[in-house]
Every structure is written in structure tokens, then in C-alpha cells.
Amino acid sequence: MSPTAARDVPAPSPSGSPSIIGEPLTLETTSTNLASLADFIGGAIPGQGECEAICKRAFNLHVPRCNYHNNKGRSCVDHPKCVERAKSGMKSAPFWRSISLQVSELGDVVPAITEAVPGVPRGLRNLGATCFFNVFVQCLFWNTMFRQIVYDHEATVDSGDYDQTVLVELKVLFTCLQVSSSSTIDPTRLVTLLGLRICHQQDVQEFTHLFLTFLQSGLSSSATPSCRQFITQQFEGRFVHKTTCLRCHKASVRRSSFTELCLPVTKQVFAIETCLALYLHSERLSGNNRYNCGVCNDKCNADRSLELEHIPPILHIQLMRFVYNRKSQTKVKLHIAVDIPLVLTFQNAEAQDLVVYDLTAVILHTGESTHSGHYIAEIRDELSGQWTRFNDGDVSPGHLVSGSSTRYISSDTAYI
Question: What angle is formed at CA 380 by the lines to CA 376 and CA 381, rounded to 5 degrees?
Fold first, then answer.
């Protein structure tokens, strides 16, 4: 979910289409200095204007040529256009080998390329069990603020090489999703770089948390000031844990940060608002569970509460559908339909005001385990308001939202 506050979004394409997805490009619009990138980014041949600028930034073509080696004899590993670095890596880096050679070695495993349809978003190829990766990357891509941050990010000379390589690959993947002439993009380079096991399903919530933490680590050293704290500023909220002694009425306060709200789902839950009420309700500590009050120097009855002190502009909510079953001693999934509002209002304790969120994406999980089954994402285009279903490489109109008068969507598979 994201707030209704205005955002900076990319300007419409020259054709006047309201879609933020670049139209498939043709040879007639080829830019000479970018034509060699066509095969590498899945068949896209950038033209003039916005698409050319995006490709230039994705492949660091706007960076001046490295002149560090005029009087030096070693590689400059931190410069993206260092010829010496390219020479030193030619024997081991597959990037410097011919595309035809790589294709001939891969043989029949290379999928057929389907041409993109104008106005239809691109999908991501499932490499085996990487649907958890695909849905979250699509959610990030369709957040126009986040996408712009990825495009704007520039590495500093002393930044960590691995962090920056991942960010460069994410920039390239975003570029392919925006301007490629192929309907399905292959994310192998980024998946491999992240060390993800393509045949092992992972919990998308765990991946989301780890990937955002990793991105913040990489962006924190960005040469672009607006990028350095973007993840923290846009995705991170703050809790206040308060325990109040009922004898002396003194409160013990502790703060913690979060990047997602993990809300309980029970048989009595029918809406997100109910989940929130259960999550934030106060708890009475009494009997054997009394509070050890430092002021009274005794165990006392107390009230323990959880408050949302700061709510981030981009809010992730996870529905805890997997619960531990004592009888089977395993986690089981609760197939309970939950009503999800298209507009959700929060009380922000820090600013003492109301924060209104628009629903922008829903990740669905089918199956009985977090480490099996399948993930699908339904995402709303911020410009057109249209919902689209992303099922790996299969992209179709959204199923959850139907009709302009709908205030809620109901789903027994909604997970995030």
C-alpha cells in the first residue's frame, strides 16, 4: 500500500499514451551509439528521448571514459567504463563473450522470444521456483518512485563492488521491463548474482525483508544524495512498546523499527481492519505473567500495548496465514477470505494526524506451505489505475478488482 500523496512520475511517452511502459521499439528509431545493446537487453533497440536516456543510465553510457590509466599500470575496478578492467576480466567474465557463442552453448534451453504487445506490461521468466522473486521485483518496478531511485543511483568510487553490481543488474532488469521488445524478461543475471537457488521456493516475505535490507546497504553509499536513505525513509516504520504498571502508573517505553506489519489471521477475522485491531490491542499482564516493575520493585499487574509511532509512506502488510498446529506439529495454512480495502486510513501517533493509503499491489499465494506452492502478483498502474495480474511470464488483466464502485476486495489467498 502507498499513500495518496502526490508523487513524481515519469512524463508520458511522446506518443501521448498514458502507460508508463515504453512501447516496443523498431529499427527505424535506433540510436546508433546504443544499437549494440539490443541483444543484451532482450531485443530492445532504444530510440530517442526517454527510452534512450533510460538505457544510457542503465548501462552507464553517460559516465565519462576512464582516464585513470594514462600513467598507471593496474586496473581501476571501481569505474564502470574502465577499458583496463574490461581487458583483465575478458577470460572469466561471460559479458565479454559473443552473444552467439553463449546461445550456441545453451542449446535448446534458450526460450523462444515472444514480441511484446504495445501497452501490455512485460513479465518475468520463472527459472524453476523463482516466482517469489518475480512478484516482488514487479512490485518494486511498478512503484515509480523506487524505479526512479534505481535509475538515478550512481556508485561512488569507494563503494562496495558487490553491492553496486547488484544495483546495476537491478537497473538493467528495470530497463528491460520498461523498454524491451520481448514480452518476457529473463532475470537470470540478477538471480544468479543474489545467490538464489532457482529450484528452491522461498517465502516471499523473508525475501522481501532481506532484499530491502540489502538494497539499503547498497544505496547508502550512492553518489546521488536522494538515494542514500530512500529505503529507510519510504519503507521503514517505528513501533512504541509500552508497559504501564497499574500500581504506580509508570510506563516503560521501548521503540523498534519495522518494514512490514505481520497481522494475525483467525477464523474470526473478516477484514484488514479487524487484523489491525487484534494486532494493536492492549494486553493485561496478571497472575503468573505479572510485570516486574522497577519503580515498585515488585511484580505488579500491568497493561502492555503496541502503538504505531511512525508509519512509512510505503506500507507492507503480511497476513499471517501459516500457524503452528500442535496436533500435527507442523505449520498449516488458513484459507480464510479477508476483505482488503482499496483505501486504508491509519492514525499516525508521531504527527497526530490521519494517513490515507491506496492499495497498489497484492501478492497471492496458492499452496499449503511457504516453501511450496506459487506466488502471483496483482499490481495497479499508478497512472491509469488499471490492475494487472503478473503470473511470471503470463501477464493478464487483474482479477481481484472489478468495477469502479468496489471498496473492498476479498481473497483467501492474499499474502502480502
Answer: 125
Specify whether 69 is catalytic. no
**Environment class of 276 (CB within 10 Å of its CB; exposed 0-12, middle 13-18, buried 19+):** middle
Pairwise CA distance, residues 264 & 279, whole Å: 7
pLDDT digits (tens, 9 = 90+) for 222-264: 878 888 899 999 999 999 999 999 999 999 999 999 988 888 8
Measure the CA–CA gap between 377 and 365, rounded to whole angstroms. 9
Three-state secondary structure readout of 255-298: EEEECCEEEECCCCCCEHHHHHHHHHCCEEECHHHCEEECCCCE
Q: Return the closest-CA partner of residue 186 out of 103, 90, 98, 86.
A: 103
Bridge partners for 375 per DSSP: 365
Task: State the Cα–Cα distance between residues 365 and 415, nearest whole angstrom.
Answer: 6
- For helices 50-58 and 144-152, the axis angle rounded to 10 degrees is 60
Q: Is 62 a catalytic residue?
A: no
Q: How confident is the model at residue 199 (pLDDT cuts 50, 70, 90)?
A: confident
Out of 131, 139, 176, 293, the active site residue is 131
Domain ranges of the chain: 50-66+97-232
pLDDT in tens, 378-414: 999 988 889 999 999 999 998 887 655 578 888 888 8
Q: For the whole model, what pTM was predicted? A: 0.74
The hierarchical CATH code for the domain 50-66+97-232 is: 3.90.70.10
Catalytic residue among 69, 209, 310, 374: 374
Of 171, 169, 164, 124, nearest to 146 by C-alpha is 171
Angle at 222 between CA 357 and CA 44, to 5 degrees: 75
